[in-house]
Amino acid sequence: MGKGDIKTRRGKIANKSYGARRPKKAAKVEVKPKKKVTKKVAKKAK
After folding, report:
1. Given its phi and psi angles, is residue 28 left (phi above 0), alpha (psi -120 to 50 degrees) or beta?
2. Residue 11: which pLDDT band, with cuts at 50, 70 and 90?
3. Which residues, 6+ apart, have CB-to-CB distance to 9 below 8 Å?
4. CA angle (17, 20, 26) in 5-degree steps
5. Phi then psi dihedrals of residue 31, to 5 deg
6. Is there a contact between 12 and 18 (Cβ–Cβ < 8 Å)?
7. If we measure between CA atoms, which residue out of 19, 35, 39 comes closest to residue 5?
8. Most distant CA atoms of the chain, gap in Å
9. Which of 4, 11, 16, 25 has a CA positioned 20 to 30 A from the CA of residue 33?
C-alpha cells in the first residue's frame, strides 16, 4: 500500500482525488440572525 493504492490517503494525494479517506475542508458557514416575526392581531368589529 502506498502511492499507487487509491484506497489510502497517500494514494488519494498522489491521484489528486478526494473521498472518505481524504475529505475536503468544509466551507465556513455564516450564521445570519433570524428576523423577528410579529403576529398581526385582528380587531373585533362592534
Report:
1. beta
2. very high
3. 21, 22
4. 80
5. -95, 120
6. yes
7. 19
8. 84
9. 25
